[in-house]
Amino acid sequence: MAFDVKFNKDEIAGNAPICLLPHDNADVDSVISCIMLSKLLDYMDIENKICIFDKNIASDTDEILKKLGYNISDYFTSDEDKNRTLILLDHYETKHLGDVMFVFDHHYTTSSVKSKYYYYQPSCATAYIIYSLMKFENMPIDEHIVKMFAYAMSVDTVGFQNNKTVEDEVVELKCLLKNYNIDFETIRKESLLVNDISNMSIEEIINNGRKDYTFNGYKVVSSYIQLDKELDDSIKKEILKNILKSISNTDTYLWVYIVYNVSSNTNSHIYYMTLRSLLEENYDYIISRGEDIIPKVEKYF
Ligand SMILES: [Mn+2]
After folding, report:
1. Which positions ≥6 away from 138 have C-beta within 8 Å?
2. 121 Cα: distance to centroid of ligand 1 (angstroms)
3. Domain edges within the chain
4. Residue 122 and residue 120: Cα distance in Å, rounded?
5. For the segment 218-267, what is each residue's pLDDT rounded down to a tens digit?
6. From ligand 1's centre to the CA of 90, what distance in Å?
7. Residues measured by CB to lie within 5 Å of ligand 1, the ion
8. Is 197-300 CATH 3.10.310.20?
9. Left if phi > 0, otherwise alpha if psi is -120 to 50, otherwise beta: which for 25?
10. CATH for 9-192?
11. 261 CA to middle of ligand 1, Å?
12. Are 269 and 233 a contacting pair, CB within 8 Å?
């Protein structure tokens, strides 16, 4: 794919050291994109530093980065500097200080982006965009780099199954992995981090991946588990019973609980529970909580 971004070495070097920023509540893709771009800038001889200000890291990010040999706390920093030049990865606006020179993102926005250069592409992951940039700059691609963006792509598309999946990119990735004898299915499974509910308490099961919202004054909670099989009926009953208990104890109006089955028999079960009602929805694909379910719930309020 042609890569038409103005990535001028002299201009960037003139603003060095460059600070590479993942979004707050950093996830796998935003951190991997930073690490990949840092490698590219190193290759171009441009001084750079990855800065993670928000120490709340999205769940499981740590685990996948460790698999790749990185320790996320190595990038933690607290010193803001308004004279810094920033590059934002996997997001398009920031509250952190500095001048934004580049934004690389795969999320579409209609709001105006306050960055000198803005690069958006509807890719599986921002890490794939950085891989394209590496190729554009003739940087040698090795097995480790391929593994990095493979994990990021898989995490962001829930194992290449949600509607953010770009088929052309998956075909290219499969080809690259084959060249290095890396098994696609292994990367996919490892990135999905299937919950082992036999080792989780009922509290952990109902609060996994929890997010809290307030819509028009109503308290809404969402959480989910990811399995590689169907949920047993007895555990399902136990989960719903405990969610109901939590709803009445915490003055929650609605609890949206999602059970993902990421086996080859892919599906999503969604339970919308209030004190007095339970609505169940089933899909034969991996539905996105952030893009499909929560916006619909918000509209309801
Ligand atoms: Mn992303």
Report:
1. none
2. 11
3. 9-192, 197-300
4. 7
5. 999 999 999 989 999 999 999 999 999 999 999 999 999 999 998 878 89
6. 5
7. 29, 90, 126, 156
8. yes
9. left
10. 3.90.1640.10
11. 21
12. no
